[in-house]
Design brief:
335 residues, alpha/beta, Spo0b-associated Gtp-binding Protein, Chain: A, Rossmann fold, six-stranded mixed beta sheet, five-stranded mixed beta sheet, 14 strands, 17% helix, 23% strand
Length: 335
């Protein structure tokens, strides 16, 4: 399945139906009077969040959505039919922005959450409404009002409790495949992962927690360098960050600081987000590297739990997950 997390579309509500000019022409009714009906209301455009979608792929092929126009009024004071609303399903986690003003309409997070993004036009009044003592036979009616039209930008931010971050080749995809049923593409070169991967990790109580492998974070990601600018937004909704550090790299401390600097530059609450630090590939590190000293140094810098793990051999994963469950439960209780 192709992962699409941004889209721009045009939505247009239905126009209101026109009111009409009509007069009663009935036998044995000497003073018929005006009887032009009102136009029907135009249909509106709604977004509704659904769990059945995971991407914004549908909007890659269809860019314009229009609701039905209201019907024209009829004689004998008949009101025109209301136009049908246009209901557009979107993935949970979709943010809806007005492209021209950059106004945020809504964050559609909960299944079934609904937002009207374009209001249908009101129907015009028929000539029956303009009857008065001064004007017993009005010969005019009003046209229906135009429906709202908007250009919208959709952004999908993954709904995951834990976001796995780190430089390319830190082992994020290997880790998510080790702790969940997700099977991302894995290879020994940078930027193997070109789209976020989601995996459900089973908790001891039987519930599941969603982990997201966030790809493409490199130095300058917040400015659009590499792939990170496209995917930093997905970390915003996570409750906890699992920062993976490759201890076989030439400068693991420098790698850690690179990601931290990107979080600081991006802002939006990410620098303060709870973190667990995982020193990955411990079974492949050279003998002369003191991992315990490195872990102690990180604890003093971040004040976060640090674990020595190997995603390949599964060493240390259980203890790391137990700490993640504890932290999630603690933050959930505070909320």
């Amino acid at each position: 399945m192709q992962f699409i997390d941004q889209a721009e579309i045009e939505v247009e509500a239905g126009n209101g139906g026109d009111g009409i000019v009509a007069f009663r022409r009935e036998k044995y009714v000497p003073a018929g009077g005006p009887s032009g009906g009102n136009g029907g209301k135009g249909g509106s455009v709604f977004f509704v969040a659904t769990e059945n979608l995971q991407t914004l792929l549908d909007f890659k092929y269809i860019h314009r959505f229009k609701a039905e126009d209201g019907g024209r009024g009829g004689p004998n004071n008949r009101t025109g039919a209301n136009g049908s609303d246009r209901i557009i399903p979107v993935a949970c986690g979709t943010s809806v922005y007005d492209t021209e003003t950059d106004e945020l309409f809504a964050d559609l997070v909960q299944p079934g959450q609904t937002i009207c993004v374009a209001q249908g036009g009101k129907g015009g009044l028929g000539n029956q409404h303009f009857l008065s003592n001064r004007n017993r036979a009005p010969e005019y009616a009003l046209p229906g009002l135009a429906g709202e039209k908007r250009l919208l930008r959709l952004e999908l931010k993954l709904l995951a409790e834990v976001g796995i971050i780190g430089l390319p080749n830190a082992g994020k995809s290997t880790l998510i495949s080790a702790i969940s049923a997700a099977r991302p593409k894995i290879a020994d070169y940078p930027f193997t992962t070109l789209e976020p991967n989601l995996g459900v990790v089973r908790k001891p109580n039987g519930d599941g927690a969603v982990f997201a492998d966030i790809p493409g974070l490199i130095e300058g990601a917040h400015e659009g360098v590499g792939l990170g600018h496209d995917f930093l937004r997905h970390i915003e909704r996570t409750r906890l960050l699992l920062h993976l550090i490759d201890v076989t790299a030439e400068d693991p401390m420098g790698n850690y600081q690179t990601i931290e600097q990107e979080l600081q530059a991006y802002g939006r609450g990410l620098p303060e987000r709870l973190q667990v630090l995982a020193l990955n590939k411990m079974d492949a590190v050279s003998i002369d590297r003191d991992l315990e000293a490195f872990a102690s140094e990180l604890r003093s810098l971040r004040n976060a739990p640090v674990f020595l793990i190997s995603a390949v051999s599964h060493n240390g994963l259980e203890a790391m997950l137990q700490e993640i469950w504890r932290m999630l439960e603690e933050t959930g209780a505070r909320d």
